[in-house]
Amino acid sequence: MPLRKQRFRTPTSRSRPPTAERPIRAGDDHGVVAGTGLFGEDARTERRERMAIVGADVPALRNLVNVLTGRARRIETTKNQMTALILELPWVGPDREQFVAEWNEIHHPNLIRLIDDMTDASGRAARHADAQEAASRGTA
Known about the structure:
Elements: H1 41-52, H2 58-88, H3 94-137
């Protein structure tokens, strides 16, 4: 029968070390950090490595700003073109009135909200990139 690798959970306040009356069982919490050696040296190394990469990838954020801004502009252009097409459509009758009302009351406002949300997200990403650059320079 192949050996199974035992997984340990992170310690909790309910942790109790194994004793003669309470042997080690799979899933027990013995004060050992998940996936580490007995003294947690792997966890310390992992924390140090993680700390070295905390922060934002400024070029990726700047790229996100450009993409969001560009896509918001494209949606704005499409919204304006669609509105013009719908209003100029040679169509008479109650179905047209219902279609135009639906566009004006549902779709047009939803596109405006989408454009506003994308513009807001672009601004937040730009501010995060600026803050990350300032933190990296030590001027935050």
